[in-house]
Amino acid sequence: MTSLAGALAAKRAEFLRELVPKASKLAFLINPTIDISQLEVEHRDIEAAARALGWQLLLVHAGTVAEFDSAFATMVRERVGVLIIATDTFFYSEMGRLGSLAARHAIPAVGPLRDFPAAGGLMSYSTSIPNTYRQAGVYTAKVLKGAKPADLPFLLPTRFELVINLKAAKTLGLAVPPTLLAAADEVIE
């Protein structure tokens, strides 16, 4: 199974462009200490998306909570217009803190899990975690019934979720376009 992290980062950029069309610089917050964030950068999906959307890309690193303040200070100094938070288990555990920092610094941000807007962040776009767990359960049952893992096809996610926090949008002075609201799986008011 895969989460399509790089490809989803590009889609997150498209959603931010729709929400903040005048932004010119995109920050991509990555954790330099683990492979998945580096993999996203290496695949260049986010770089290609930023280029296609006419944005300058700024890679910002934070591998510890102590580095968050300096990462956001860099974004403010560089006049970042929007932020994408990379897919990273460390960031997953810090969604509330990252949402607060993005709001405090008035940076529209999209996170990798629905926990981000639920904790006060602007929005998230991700694979459906419950659906992924169901797929894993189906594969586990197949293996327990005798299937050889090597014979099972590689699974790609089939369900994705867009969650938008309207309160966060209002705090940031953003009007969420009706097309984006219509595409949302959940709207937090």
Descriptive report:
- It is a single chain.
- The chain is an alpha/beta fold.
- It has two domains: 5-127 and 160-188, Response regulator (Rossmann fold, 3-Layer(aba) Sandwich); 130-158.
- It contains ten helices and seven strands.
- It is globular.
- The mean pLDDT is 86.
Quick structural summary:
With 189 residues, the protein is an alpha/beta fold. The chain is built from 10 helices and 7 strands.
Query: How much β-strand is present in the residues?
Result: 15-25%
CATH architecture of the largest domain: 3-Layer(aba) Sandwich
Count of alpha and pi helical runs: 10
Regions with little confidence, pLDDT below 50 for 5+ residues: none
Overall geometry comes to globular
- The proportion of residues forming helix, as a percent range, comes to 40-55%
From the helix content, strand content and strand pairing, which structural class follows? alpha/beta
Q: Major beta sheet, specifics?
A: 7 strands, mixed
The succession of helices and strands, N to C, reads HEHHEHEHHEHEHEHHE
- Number of domain units: 2
What would you report as the Rg, rounded to the nearest angstrom? Answer: 17 Å
**Quaternary structure classification:** single chain
DSSP summary, beta strand count = 7
Residue-averaged pLDDT = 86
Which strand order spans the largest sheet, edge to edge or round the barrel? 2-1-3-4-5-6-7
Cα-to-Cα separation, first versus last residue: 33 Å
The CATH class of the largest domain is identified as Alpha Beta
CATH topology of the largest domain: Rossmann fold
CATH superfamily of the largest domain: Response regulator
